[in-house]
Amino acid sequence: MKKITTLLLSLLLFSCSESKTEIENLTLNNGEKWEKNIETTNGISEMQTLISGFNRQSLEDHHNLNSELKREFKKIIRACNMEGDAHDQLHHYIKPILLDYFKKIDSKNIESSKNGLEELKIHLNEYKNYFKNEK
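RESULT FIELD:
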C-alpha cells in the first residue's frame, strides 16, 4: 500500500505547478469555476455516494470504506487527461485527499478515523465550488 501511495504522491507532485487559497494553493479561474473532466466528476460523486451510504461504527468498517474510497481515487488519477491551469488546480484539490484524509481514516483510533471521514466528506463537497457543475 505504501508503494501505491508513494506512486500517487509522485504523480501529483511532479505533474503540477503551485498557486494559493483555502484548500492549499487552490484558486478560482479569475472568479469563475474551472473546467473539469467527466471522469473526475464521476469519481468524486462515487466517493460521496460511498460515504453517504456508510453507517457503520467499527474501525475495521472505516478501514474497509477507506479501501473502497482509494479505489475510486485511483480511477480519478488514471483518468486524468486535463492540461494547463485547470489540471494544476484539480491536483491542488485532490492532493489533500491523498496526503491527509486517507491517512486519517486509516488511523488506529476510531475517533481519528471518524474525524478523517467527516473531513473528507466536507472536502468532497467543496469540489462543486471550484469546478464547473454541468456534466
